[in-house]
Design goal:
Order of helices and strands: EEEEEEEEEEE
Distance between the termini: 78 Å
Number of helices: 0
Number of domains: 1
CATH architecture: Sandwich
């Protein structure tokens, strides 16, 4: 019995020339990740802690229960968490509000309404801002409500698109 004899020649040329792009540059300009304290009280939620990336960014800052956006541009907002109510779920909502830093105009960017007794949620929306903004989360409920909110996280990302 003769062993099989196979031989192969690898013969190709690697082109020589300038290297093309290796991927997007500066895809994420800046981002802030914030989580909030559990609450059963109507009103503005209080920030537990936050992380700004990169840490030398001048785009975001936290002060009190607000997140300040200090550059014009496009931003992606993602809010997630848990909302529960056993008494009157139709009158409970969480609002992500943006306000011009000079207080001239406000916008309820994301409104989350509770349609059953409990709900885990996550909502994302992109906004274009031509003025400096401050961002807050507000729990709205009626006096007879026993609603509470927990595990609340807010991430805001500055998108690399040019503002015009």
């Amino acid at each position: 019995m003769k062993p099989l004899h196979n031989s192969y020649i690898l013969d190709f040329v690697i082109p020589n020339g300038p290297t093309g792009p290796t991927g997007p540059s500066n895809f994420l300009e800046s981002q802030i990740y914030t989580n909030y304290n559990t609450s059963n009280t109507s009103g503005m939620l209080s920030i537990r802690n936050s992380l700004i990336l990169p840490n030398n960014s001048n785009v975001f800052r936290e002060s009190g229960n607000y997140i300040y956006i200090d550059e014009m541009g496009y931003y992606e907002f993602t809010v997630s968490g848990y909302l529960a109510e056993t008494a009157n779920s139709n009158n409970t909502s969480l609002i992500l509000k943006t306000t011009m830093q000079n207080g001239a105009a406000t916008n309820n960017l994301i409104t989350i309404r509770l349609n059953s007794s409990e709900s885990y949620f996550s909502y994302t929306k992109v906004g274009k801002y031509g003025s400096l903004q401050k961002v807050s989360l507000i729990l709205n409920k009626t006096n007879d409500s026993n609603a509470y909110i927990s595990e609340i996280n807010l991430t805001i990302k500055k998108m690399p698109w040019t503002y015009s």
